[in-house]
């Protein structure tokens, strides 16, 4: 059902009160450093212990996880490095990411493996791309596709259709908070059927998933190397807090 703009604000403010996140991106301080109580590192900074991935594309170098496509290792399908020590349900995930300007990647969560050969995942994804066209949005890999673009608060209805019910800011304006070809901190807050994607302390997108037939309430965490031209993506400081 369509909601006139005047009726969006009460819904949005109620949502913000429920999840304790400020409404507008400019209200959230950057570089919070924040309260790390309860977080644990899930990457040792030295090896891929506890992770599973195709070592043609994944390695550890200078204390960071590197995913890379070279002219000799072009992909036919997206491939993932998958954390092996659990399938979190309600959690917060923080990590730093740097991606080449032509790169395409993402952070998957509440996902399931669909191919042991290609190490493919299906599930929610916080998008990352070097041109910042999609960074921060919520995209369901191998599923319902775009759930919320950057700047959107979306409710996925019982038929699996995203309905925009509010805004976290202007899509293009939010790119001002994302550094190009440099390190950015991603912070995902996932509780029940609400998923919040933040970059550098700014809310990029929020999804409320009421599609009981297709949503996932727990699953695997993984990071992606996407099909495409040669590219490089790096991850470090990966910390998880489960509720």
Automatic annotation (TrEMBL):
Residues 1-25 form the signal peptide. It comes from the Bacteria. Keywords: Signal. InterPro entries: AL/BT2_dom. Residues 38-241 form the 3-keto-alpha-glucoside-1,2-lyase/3-keto-2-hydroxy-glucal hydratase domain. The keyword Protein biosynthesis does not apply. This is DUF1080 domain-containing protein. It comes from Splendidivirga corallicola.
